Model the fold of this input.
Amino acid sequence: MPVPLPTWYIVDSTQVAANKLVSSFSAGNAEEIAKGWIIKADTVEELAKACELDAKTLQETLDEWNASCTQGADALFGRSGASLLPVATAPYYAMKLGPTMYNTQGGPERNSKAEVLDLDGNPIPHLYSCGECGAMWPDMYNGGGNLGEAAVFGRIAGKNIAALQ
Done:
């Protein structure tokens, strides 16, 4: 089945209060809500209307999702219960999503010396990274940005490796 486009990231007030929907968003997502990037509605029906979705289908989808949260396992996609958060407390929020660019980001974290860090934030001796591996903006890829990052951190890593000789 093809993915419907646009698709919507839908959460409730509990999630919006606890987390930025995107790491670069404002605290409580307040600025993004005010700008209309995140739609806010007091009921699921109002949210469906604002998103131009069928209200009955949206309510059924949320009911199925919330049942998975209660059962502790995602019935449709098999996600573990630890990552499931119900969408049950008004107001409700939606953010439009769609494909932009493809890319693989993230991986190990690195410091300003291009050293890869362990899980406690300590440099792993003689292990360096550059470019997408440990990217500075893992959730905000900006098309071509890794070329500069690869060059800068490649040079930093090279200097640090050469200094070990």
